[in-house]
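Consider the following assembly input.
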Amino acid sequence: MFELADFDEVTVSDVSRFYGRRRALAHISLTCSAGEITGLLGPNGAGKSTLLGLLATLTQSSVGEVRYGDRTTQQAGAALRAQVGFLSHDLQLYPELSARENLEFFAGLYGLDRAAERVVEALVSAGLNDRADDIVEGFSRGMRQRLALERALLHSPRLVLFDEPFTGLDEEACAALVARLRVLRAERRIILLATHDLDAVDGLLDRVVLLRQGRMCELGVGNSLRERYRAAIFAHGGGRQLEKGSSGEVAVESSPGDDPEELR
Amino acid sequence: MTGFLKVAWLVLRKDLRVESRSREMLSTTIFFAVSCVLVFSFGFVRGGRVVDGAVAGILWIAISFSGTLALARAFERERYHNVLGGLMLAPVHRPAIYLGKLLGLLLLLGIVEVVVVAMVAFLFQASLFQHFWRLLAILALGTIGFASVGTLFSAMLVRVKNRAVLLPVLLYPVTIPVLIMGVSGTAALLQPEPNLAMVQLWISLLFFFDTVFLTLALWTFEPVMTE
């Protein structure tokens, strides 16, 4: 058995990630604490998914380190993975299995207590209780998304990483997810979500990290996050890149905004 | 952390469940193996007589070719929707995932071999069942050696675009010793006067090869799958 690797803070210190000669992330530094929701914003290809993959321990940094509490990925190992819930842009579900079988399989891998009970709770939470034994292949994108969300949260992880969690969700499901995120924050989870859907996260984010071309950028000037985002992305040719070691984190109080190309 | 064998069992059970619904790998692999044996039966049986020494080669070609087909699809389900990422994130010994996949493939190849052996025995009038346990040992050990290397390569290539082309290119040079041992052991068994000492030698060599490659595969699976 591995020692439980719980933590209250995730610290990314001057992390860069290269794929061959291409730079996906450059000098990223940020700290995410328990009980906070951090939003990762930026255009397509900005490095949001790479950063989430790195935090999920699925990718390694080329330079710099990520610390979970006082331990690195290598020091915490498999025990750390038990504390990470990751909703990838790919849904990571077996389409040939039913919703229940998918959840039972992952509950088994995580060695969960009361697995059957938790699976039923997750199915109810996903609104799929009456379709529990249907094959996932026959589900709509929104139903799969809801199931994938529950799969990511099935083991009550400390670190919750969501990549485009609102994809395919209808208005009701979006509202339910926002409510769920608030509950997770109240439970002192560390939450990072990458999204283009600023309307859905309006008033939800505690902090925003803006990425562009793998670098952290300052949000622009404006009354709302929407305006500040647009100012950073368009008005200043992609936003002023922060100096190495700057936090790039912005406290959010105003409503987020819109970008006709990137935002829904 | 979930126990090693329990994880292997979970992966195996999941693969069996998926295969029982789609029968995708089983049907294509058996179809290919049967076609292979049928084609050879037209080429190597002349005037009711089988070309000397052909049976062992035909048997192993059918097994290895159909096995390659199965290995190429071994991690397709994990690649689809990137479920592999979900498996890699689970707090389990990653080699247990390899073991589960390997056991599923061995079961599949075992079913294929039952069909192929029966067909070869019938079409080539081969006395395959005279030394049943020895034949079983050669087939089982040869298949384990072939599949243990193949499953690792299949996992390694899961993110590679040209994996269908690369798998045989990587697989055959490494598994040629297993195939030679399998063919030689089976040929020694099928002689009019079976050379049982040679059969025993080939079985021992296969066992040695399996031990080495299974150990190496279990040892290297984690670093190979971690980027």
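Helices of chain A lie at 48-55, 73-76, 78-81, 99-109, 115-125, 141-153, 171-186, 225-235. Ask yourself how this observation constrains the way the partners meet.
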